[in-house]
Amino acid sequence: xxxxxxxxxxxxxxxxxxxxxxxxxxxxxxxxxxxxxxxxxxxxxxxxxxxxxxxxxxxxxxxxxxxxxxxxxxxxxxxxxxxxxxxxxxxxxxxxxxxxxxxxxxxxxxxxxxxxxxxxxxxxxxxxxxxxxxxxxxxxxxxxxxxxxxxxxxxxxxxx
Length: 160
What we know:
Elements: H1 2-48, E1 51-52, E2 59-61, E3 75-81, H2 86-101, E4 106-112, H3 117-122, E5 130-134, E6 141-144, H4 149-159
Parallel strand pairs: 2-4, 3-4
Antiparallel strand pairs: 1-2, 3-5, 5-6
């Protein structure tokens, strides 16, 4: 007898949990759709324009169609790197800090070698991190490997 009294409550609990799961799944599906739309929008914008990656607007991420040398009314400093590269990620804050200090004298780009293979090939980049400095059509100055702030500042000061 007691089992017959408990059985309807158990059935109600199961039905209630099924309804909450489908509501939860609907919310998850909506969130996934929103995230997918946002990713597609960002990807479309990245293909069509340069994305500024620094709040001071001094470091620009190059897209595969960009050629930073083409905008060289002042010196250009390019950081070739990749998201999977540990030393590249360690150098990133150094690059951004120095870029902020020298923004009036040079344009600073960061280039993902996986996204911009043609640009990396153009400047003979075979190891990363790699910094290339371009000025007034002169031969590019290249430095491969991690640099601390003092080393990077010295490279920039000497070559821009």
